[in-house]
Specification:
Radius of gyration: 16 Å
Shape: extended
Structural class: alpha+beta
Order of helices and strands: EEEEEH
Number of strands: 5
C-alpha cells in the first residue's frame, strides 16, 4: 500500500521567549500565528494575563487567566 503524502501545513507559529526570572513581571512568551503566510494575530502569554492582537491590529486586548479559563471551557465543553 503506498504511503500518503503529508498534507502541506496550513498554520505556522513564530515564538519569542523573554525570561528575566520566571516569577517576575515582564516575563512572557510572544507567539505570532500565521495561516498560509497571512498573520492571524499575536498572542503574548505572561504571568498575570494574556494579550491578543488580531491580524493587522496595532493594539492588543488583555484577558486575565480566569476569563481565559471560562472562554476555553465554553469553547471546549459548551458550558
Amino acid at each position: 500500500m503506498p504511503r500518503k503524502q503529508p498534507r502541506p501545513r496550513k498554520h505556522s507559529v513564530k515564538a519569542t521567549l523573554k525570561v528575566h526570572e520566571l516569577s517576575k513581571a515582564g516575563t512572557s512568551l510572544h507567539l505570532e500565528i500565521y495561516r498560509e503566510g497571512e498573520k492571524l494575530g499575536a498572542l503574548e502569554v505572561g504571568r498575570g494575563a494574556l494579550y491578543w492582537a488580531g491580524g493587522k491590529r496595532k493594539s492588543n486586548k488583555r484577558i486575565d487567566w480566569s476569563r481565559f479559563a471560562e472562554l476555553m471551557d465554553e469553547l471546549t465543553y459548551g458550558n
